[in-house]
Amino acid sequence: MSLISKFKAVKFNASREWEVEDTLTNEAALQILVNNEPFSVTMRTPGSEKDLVRGLLFAENAYDKIQNVFRYQTLELDSFGNPSVVNVFLSDDEKAPGADSKRSLTSVSSCGICGKEDLSSIALCGDPIADPVVFSPQQITKMFDAMAEVQDAFLKSGGCHAAAVFDANARLIIMKEDIGRHNAVDKVIGFCLNNDLLTHANCLLVSGRVSFEIISKAHRAGIPVLAAISAPSSLAVQSSRDCGITLLGFCRGENLTAYSGEERISV
User: Fold this and answer.
1) How many angstroms separate the CA atoms of 221 and 198, rounded?
2) With contact defined as beta carbons under 8 Å apart, do 54 and 30 qualify?
3) Can you say whether residue 189 is alpha, beta or left, with left for phi > 0 and alpha for psi between -120 and 50 degrees?
4) Fold classification of 137-264 (topology level)
5) 111 is annotated as an active-site residue
6) Which side of the chain, N or C, has fewer Cβ within a 10 Å radius?
7) Dihedral angle, C-alpha 57, 59, 61, 63, nearest 10 °
């Protein structure tokens, strides 16, 4: 399943115009049902739907099981053959509180908390992460290099975000791409859940900026280190300090800025 498509376009400069074939990142709606009842509609790049849904339900505290037991089915396909409606069956024993907190609006690809009905539903909860893992700046650099090497859709379209999970030895577990930053994170966390690898996830890398919803997803997954190429928001920094996450921004070359949890970085 391709993450990108070709489109005809016309380029202009001050003296001429010419036709081009541009490569763009795909975006399409995915409706998620829980027990055949509407739960959410999210805009995403098609591909890895099972991982996306697992990660989203985990982040929303709708299905919080770590074990690889996940009853998922595709109900409808769109005209391109991509899943457009999927259903997850949860027994009463499997439901977490978030399963009944349906989103009232479409979750767009740029925002992970759109559709929430009240502010209490976006608050962080739970104990701070106490994992003592330590990385060097050189390891962080090598992890970003490893992520970049497999960002095929970004290299071709320039319009795709990436997220990647690494273990305590800075080894790549999984990388996923999506037009939405939060979708890419849901996909990698969902992959780890679906493959019983979440306990090995020690560092989460993201290709863009970090805002509150990325911190909340890392905290839910118990990932102690979060590193980004770009800047964090003020709420991301405040939240990372509250929940025991090492937050690194402006990770470029061997330079990085630690906004919280600097004890996990050793030169």
Assistant:
1) 7
2) no
3) alpha
4) Cytidine Deaminase; domain 2 (3.40.140)
5) yes
6) C
7) 40
pTM of the complete model? 0.90
d(CA 87, CA 37): 8
Residue identified by tokens 């376009």 is 9
Instruction: Tokens for 38, please give them.
Output: 């509407």
111, 125, 192, 251: the catalytic one is 111
According to DSSP, the β-strands at 203-206 and 225-228 are parallel
In the chain, CATH 3.40.140.10 sits at 137-264
Task: Note the Cα 247 to chain centre separation in Å.
Answer: 16
Alpha-carbon distance 245 to 241, whole Å?
Answer: 6
Spatial distance between the Cα atoms of 170 and 225, rounded to a whole number of angstroms: 11
Q: Are 237 and 259 in contact (CB under 8 A)?
A: yes
| Neighbouring C-alpha atoms within 13 Å toward the C-beta of 46 | 20
Alpha helices per DSSP H over the chain:
49-59, 137-149, 152-157, 181-194, 212-221, 234-242
Q: What token pair was written down for 196? A: 């019983």
Joined together, the tokens standing for residue 88 give: 């997850």
What are the tens digits of pLDDT across the range 65-88? 887 678 999 999 999 999 999 999
CB-side exposure of 232: number of CA atoms within 13 Å? Answer: 27
